[in-house]
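Q: Got a minute? One more chain.
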Amino acid sequence: MSKTNTIVAGIDVAKAKLDVAITAASCAGRSRTTLPVFTTLPACCAPARLPGSVWKPPAATSATVVEYLRKAGFNVVVLQPRQVRAFAEFILCRAKSDCIDAGLIAACVAHHQIEREAPDPRIAAFADQLTFIEQTEEDIVRIKVRLEHTRDPKLRRVMLADIERLKSRRAKVIARLVAALRTHEDLARRLDLLRSIDGVGPRTALAFIIRMPELGRLSREQAAALAGLAPFVHDSGDRKGERHIAGGRDRLRKSVYSAALPAAFRWNTQLITLYKRLTEAGKPHKLALVACARKLVIFANTVLARGTAWSSRPATC
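A: Always. Here it is, folded:
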């Protein structure tokens, strides 16, 4: 394992407490996540130059801790749980506790020099609204599933009314989010570029802008992998394993996949051609749709990288 002089504070976040470790040392502090505790975090992490990699990112508490530390002037790296557990397995650490996890987080960042640019605060503000839209869509799907198994006319009317109410709410929130995004000239420009792609509507464009702000600064392979739409090699010796997509940003992948379905059948001539070519070659429907979704991400990345609107001519990307 490589040596490093970088001092890092690792923070394991739970609902009721924080565990803090400086580099790979034992926990420097353990306390409840109340506002007075947050005021002690900068002092606790003061020895660290690259402090505060926060585990368990889905928790609301994690977002609060990250925001507080960034405002205090610290560089913060957010790790996925699987990254920390993989590092633990690599160094043969089989024990598991919040205190140990905090030390692992610090050691992982320190030894691998993980540095990431701070996210655009404007995008972070829009993310909650997009998440609400996505959750509303999930509610609509759940009600539709229940509707398929309900025969009572009164209950069906109630469910249909709920679906219409949720669709109306979804449309209003999307319109408000688009209007808010257009108040920023650079984001409005990105929105217009994405909307120029055949098959990309406001909902999908919002997903690209908010869920993948790096788009336009990546290679086509990086963009596909980040969206979770890149097929990974699984070979060993003479064995040639099947390629499967894995990882990536789950909510973004779902949004792009949903957009690829109508785009590959009606809106985008290049995706229509790609889908027909793959299915006529004997590829399954879902594999062809994943390929179309991946191509849609590549189109979006290319349009933003070039800064020019979409052209329906065959892409060279």
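A: Residues 226 and 248 are 5 Å apart (CA to CA).
Q: Perfect, thanks.
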